[in-house]
Structure formats: structure tokens, C-alpha cells
Design brief:
The protein has about 325 residues and is mostly helical. It has 13 helices and eight strands. It has three domains: about 80 residues, Dna Ligase, domain 1, CATH 3.30.1490; about 80 residues, no CATH class; about 140 residues, no CATH class.
């Protein structure tokens, strides 16, 4: 009788050891996936529910069996909500560990220099890995949501590549981009030339947005800025095409004509003096610095040469000759 009982214990111990070895092998075996499996864990979901979401997304694992192993080892109690990714080579146990620790998957979004706010909103509110908590908000309500004091959103978001946890709120990304622009603008304003013809950081932001739209050449930004600064100093109208185009919004048909330049509106710098009421795009760091540190020059005009560079002129006569050559194709 005693011998039988000993044999039974030995068999039970061996079977338990085999089961434990199999469990260890199964949870530490790398998963084979042709493409990452993305899934979302909602707030309040259990470990079992989270693992079932992973399996439903395409992860080749037995969610219920993995749950019981996690439960037996005390790893099933804590699950952090968010967006997760199961990738090729990850083990089931690594997935459990990530769910425990909240190691959510991340995504990226790029805001490009020169974009207007319509493009910014379309990009953010169309991103598949953001929770869209701002899509139904007006521009004014959006600014209130992120704590901005400005009345108009144009130019307030810094162009950069933003990395964020999947399932983050869109409002959090707007806030990050807004705060980044506030930091960049404050830094640029602190470095401004003492005789700069601008009265506030917001005016610098407006001018920087115009510079951003006028040129993408690093070697010309400060010269373009000097033309506008010189004009502001003597009360000369800026006469810059991008502001006119911006004022027409989505109704602009793609070609600037004389009637556009002659039709007065608040963004038409051909008919009105000074700066437009708001920025016209998102300026990058280089444009911000150019706006507050323009080159020293006596230029009042510039025109595109057609090769990506500009011809700068001091007098209207010089400018008209440059227009004849580079725009009209005449020999002066």
C-alpha cells in the first residue's frame, strides 16, 4: 500500500513537472506573425478580455489558457488600458508583462512647416491611433479645450514629428503642439534684434508665417525677413501674395490674378498696411528666428527667379526690371 502511494506521488510530481515545463515552454515560445496585431484594451477590461482582444486581432495564442497561467502566477490582476501591438517574435509572457506594466504601443504624426490649420486638423483628426475628442469642436472650442488664450488657431501649433501612446486623446496632441510653439516663440522673441519693428511675440509669429510661405531656402530667409522689416519701418505695405491667397481660404482656385490683389479683405497686404490679423501658416524654428533676426539690408523688393531662388532689389525700378526678366521673360 505504501509502495503504491509513493509511486502515485512520484507520478503526480512528474506530471506536475511536465505540466509546468509545458506551460513555461508555451508562454515563452516566440509567436510567428506575418504582420503586427494591433488591439485596444478599454478601461476596466480584465486580463482574460485583453488576451482575447489580442487573439481576435490575429495573435496566435490561446487566450484562456494564457489567462489561467497568468492567474496562477499572480499576473492577471493588473491590466492597463491603451493600444497594444503583438509583433513577430514576441512571446505570450512578454504580452502579459506589457499588459501588466502598461507598455502601450506608440504612433507618430508629423505636422509640416507651412501647413495651415485646416491641414493640421485634417491630419490629427484623421489619425487612426488617436481618440477623436476634438473632431466636433469649433476652432474656438478647440482653443478653450487646450487652454489657449488666442482667439484664432492659425499658426499656434509647432511643426514637428510627435510620438504618442496609441489611444491618446487628440486634444493631448494639440496641447503638446501648442505648448511647443509657445516655447519656441518665447525663445525666438528673447533673441530678437533691439530695433525690430514688431511689438509682440504674436506679431513675430505672424511675420514668421509669411516668411515660411515665401521661401523654403535657408540662405534667403533672413533676406526675405529684412524686406518685410524694412517695409514695416517706413510704413510701406507688405504686398505679399501668400496673405492674399490665405484670405480666400478654400475658395482660392489655384492661380493668383490681378482681381485677387485688387479685392480688399483683412488679409490683403496689397490694399492694407501692416501685418495681417493672424498668422497664415505654421512657421518652423528657422522662420521664427528669421522673423526676429532679419538680415541687415536696404532691400524693399524680391521676386522669384524661377529656379527656387529670389532676386532682391532696393528700388522699384530695379524690381520692375527683375520682374520683366524673371516673370515676363523680357530682356529688362
Amino acid at each position: 500500500m505504501k509502495s503504491w502511494f509513493v509511486r502515485f506521488l512520484l507520478l503526480a510530481t512528474a506530471l506536475a513537472a511536465l505540466a509546468a515545463a509545458w506551460a513555461a515552454w508555451s508562454v515563452h515560445r516566440p509567436l510567428a506573425l506575418a504582420a503586427p496585431a494591433d488591439f485596444i484594451v478599454e478601461r476596466g477590461q480584465t486580463m482574460r478580455a485583453a488576451l482575447r482582444e489580442a487573439a481576435a486581432a490575429g495573435a496566435p495564442l490561446d487566450a484562456d489558457r494564457l489567462y489561467w497561467i497568468a492567474r496562477a502566477t499572480g499576473r492577471a490582476e493588473r491590466v492597463v488600458a491603451g493600444g497594444y501591438e503583438v509583433s513577430d517574435g514576441m512571446t505570450p509572457w512578454q504580452l502579459v508583462d506589457r499588459l501588466n506594466r502598461g507598455e502601450v504601443a506608440h504612433a507618430e504624426l508629423r505636422l509640416v512647416e507651412g501647413w495651415n490649420v485646416r491641414q493640421v486638423r485634417a491630419t490629427i483628426e484623421g489619425h487612426p491611433h488617436l481618440v477623436q475628442d476634438t473632431a466636433d469642436l469649433s476652432d474656438e472650442a478647440l482653443l478653450a479645450r487646450i487652454g489657449a488664450d488666442e482667439a484664432h488657431p492659425e499658426g499656434l501649433f509647432f511643426p514637428d514629428t510627435y510620438r504618442f501612446a496609441r489611444r491618446s486623446n487628440a486634444s493631448a496632441l494639440y496641447r503638446a503642439a501648442y505648448e511647443a510653439m509657445q516655447r519656441e516663440l518665447a525663445s525666438a522673441w528673447a533673441q530678437r534684434d533691439p530695433d525690430l519693428p514688431l511689438d509682440s511675440p504674436y506679431e513675430a509669429l505672424i511675420l514668421a508665417s509669411i516668411i515660411e510661405k515665401e521661401t523654403g531656402r535657408a540662405d534667403e530667409r533672413e533676406l526675405v525677413a529684412s524686406v518685410f522689416a524694412n517695409r514695416l519701418r517706413i510704413g510701406m505695405r507688405l504686398q505679399t501674395d501668400p496673405t492674399v491667397i490665405y484670405g480666400y481660404g478654400e475658395s482660392f482656385e489655384g492661380r493668383l490674378r490681378r482681381r485677387h490683389l485688387d479685392t480688399d479683405h483683412e488679409y490683403n497686404t496689397y490694399t492694407r498696411g501692416g501685418l495681417p490679423p493672424t498668422p497664415i501658416a505654421m512657421p518652423g524654428r528657422a522662420a521664427l528666428l528669421a522673423a526676429v533676426q532679419p538680415a541687415e539690408s536696404d532691400y524693399l523688393y524680391f521676386v522669384a527667379r524661377g529656379d527656387g531662388t529670389s532676386k532682391f532689389s532696393r528700388t522699384l525700378r530695379e524690381h520692375n526690371r527683375a520682374v520683366n526678366i524673371h516673370i515676363l521673360g523680357r530682356d529688362g
